[in-house]
Amino acid sequence: MNYIKKAIRSFLLSPMVFAAFTVFFIGCAESISIRTAPPQLPVYEQPICPDEGYIWVPGYWAYGPNGYFWVPGIWEPAPEAGLLWTPGYWGWSNGYYIWHEGYWAGHVGFYGGINYGHGYGGVGYEGGYWNEGRLYYNSAVTNVNVAVIHTTYQAPANENPVRTTVSYNGGAGGTSAKPLDKELVAARVPHISATPAQKRHFRAAASNRELLVSFNQGRPRRDILAKRQGPALEKKVARQKKPPQNKVNEKKQKEHREYEH
């Protein structure tokens, strides 16, 4: 009898089964805990921003019944003017890798010091900022076409020139970043979870066999690492004529950069 109990306990605490039970019981909660570290982040090109008001949501490794799978990066419309996206991240704690969900808020919170690229260098977001209800894009770090989007500026990002691909915080080989005071404040204020469109995007990724680590060994095809805009938006880009580069209010730009740094 003791042998059977030990066998059952060993089975339930195995990495795959533990993860499956965790996902089952906390399906709508904010964390998933597993024993195996996520793969390195792939480096990929960002597709062009489709229209004003869209914010880049970087790709990441998620976990499901069949193991890790890649959720492609995608441009998403902000649910409300003034909101920015804080990416989710994996954090190591007491022998487990715990997933912390991303969210929308007025300021970017802590995302583990993970360098997701394209403005998410580990702290804050340098891809753009809101000013009087409009989103201004930093064309130095985001792929934006000024023929479509006229609220642009250029400012060097403070990302490490040597791009790290570590995908989790803490533990062996993880980032050592700790939350800054402003990031803790951002997490405490009211915020919005992933939008219905983001959830549909997640489900589509979860059902795509090619995005599974068991299929791609942690290296998905380059053409599926990020989701590109639809044909209708591509036609809009083609119709527009390229205007001169906009000059953004320097005072607002300075205030934004001082908050982020």
Question: Can you characterise this structure?
Answer:
The protein has helices at 2-12, 15-25, 181-188, 196-206, 213-216, 231-239, 250-260; strands at residues 33-34, 54-57, 60-64, 67-71, 74-77, 84-86, 89-93, 96-100, 103-105, 128-131, 134-138, 152-153, 168-169. Helices cover 25% and strands 19% of the residues. It has 261 residues and is an alpha+beta fold. Mean pLDDT is 81; it is low at 1-30 and 231-252. A 4-stranded mixed β-sheet has the order 1-8-7-13. Strands 10-11-12 form a 3-stranded mixed β-sheet, with helices on one face. The chain has 7 helices and 13 strands.
Q: What's the short story on this structure?
A:
With 261 residues, the chain is of the alpha+beta class. The chain is built from 7 helices and 13 strands.
